[in-house]
Structure formats: C-alpha cells, structure tokens
Write a structure and sequence with these properties.
The chain has 273 residues and is an alpha/beta fold. It has 2 domains: 7-131, Oxidized Rhodanese, domain 1 (3-Layer(aba) Sandwich); 154-272, Rhodanese-like domain (Oxidized Rhodanese, domain 1, 3-Layer(aba) Sandwich). It contains 10 helices and 10 strands. The chain has a 5-stranded parallel β-sheet. Strands 6-10-9-7-8 form a 5-stranded parallel β-sheet. β7, α7 and β8 (201-202) form a beta-alpha-beta unit.
Length: 273
Amino acid sequence: MNDNNSIVSPEWLVVNTENPQVVIVDCRFSLADPELGQKQYQESHIPGAFYLDLNRDLASSVAKHGGRHPLPNIAELADKLSAIGINSPETLVVVYDDSRLAFASRLWWLLRYMGHSKVALLSGGFSGYKAAGYPVVNTLPEPREGKFVPELQPEWIVDIEAVKARKDLPGEVLVDSRESDRYLGIREPIDPIAGHIPGAVNYPWQDVTDEGGKVRSASEQKQRWTELEKAEEIIVYCGSGVTACVNLLSLEIAGIPNAKLYVGSWSDWCSYQ
C-alpha cells in the first residue's frame, strides 16, 4: 500500500495475491459491449481475482427515472460479497479494471457506502499489472466463504429533489464529472438531452489518473480541488453515477470529505426534462 490507503501498486498486489486477508475483484466492463468485461476476465485475470459486473452486480434495473445505473439491491450485493470471501470489516478488497478506474471506482465507493472501509484500487489497472510482467491466469478461483454485513451511509447520496433544493445555496458546489464536450453540450453519445445541470462546474473524471490509468499523487489531487476545498458540501455527478466515483476517490485522496453522490446523475436529471 502507498501512503494513501485507497491505492495499491502492482508491486504490492503481486506480493499479496495469496494473502488470506485480501480479496481481489476484477471490474472490467465496456458500456459499448456489456459482455466484453466478463469475456476478458475469462480469458485472463490477476490470479485469485473474482469478477463483478457493472450491470448485473453493481447496479439494478433501469426504470423511467433514477438514471442508467441505479444502486444495486444492497442485500443481494452483500450476499455476492460474502460468496467471494469478504468479511466485514476486516478483509482488504482490492479492485481493478482497465478503464482508468471508471468501473472499479464504483465498487470502491459502493463498499464504503455499505460501511466497508478496507478497500483499495489498483493503480494502473490490469494493463499496468501485465506491463510490469506479473502473471495472469484463466482459471477461475475457488468460492470462498465470507460474512459481509452492510452498514449503509445514507447521508452519502442525494436524489434529484435534494439537488434541486441545494444546488444554488451558498457553500454548495455541484460537480459534473463528464468530459468537457459533454458538459458543454457539444456532444452527447448516450443520453437523449445534451448539456449539464445549471450551476454545475466541470471536473472531468479522466484527470484523476494519467493516460495509463496510474493514479496521480495526493498533492496533485489536492491541487485539483483547490478552488473547492472550502465548500460546505460537494455533490458529484456524471452520466449515470459511475465515473463520478472516480472524482469521489480523488476528493478522498485530497482529504476533502464532504462529498456526496447524485446517484441518478445526468441520465436521471434529463429524464424529467
């Protein structure tokens, strides 16, 4: 582990792959091809890693409102976490993807929202691990027994009514985590309406890592948020509440604790337009 408990390096992970107190989770996924992540996992993954799927495991069914990736059924997810050997609160869960933490951060945030603070992301992701010459396998891990008991942090999330009520208050900041051209409404590849929530400022989630998916230093993360560090509350959103979690990671590393997730995000907001 480095000096921030939310990040581990490939070097640390390869030494701890067989540590009984560590559970590794592969969260690779593609919005364009929802089956791709599971296929990639079955072809090769970090030894001992289990797979959790964004759509099937880390979100629930889409409805008219609520966004494209509503929060999963908590009891069902807790059962899945138990079935891969996660014991709350002691197991360290290490999560990775191959998309600059876009999907792994969702599980990182969900675990903490469910009261499990011992969770870290693999800096550089699967590609960084492989590039370092470390072994990968295609054998599936044996099931492990665990006992995951969720303790939700309901104050960590907001819905559309809370966003409407709070977004213009003094000391309140609304952060849009999408790429700037989507924020500006120049391009909208997914949702039916382009643009952003009035009053939101733009901090693209990709800036949290370098192009190889390596997490930028704590001082760089702190520098990113200099203008917001005195905010009383920060509400973070993206397209569907997934990549916003990368910015929530950045805020955590920067030592800014007062950030909440608008789970439905832009896909929920524009469903009422």
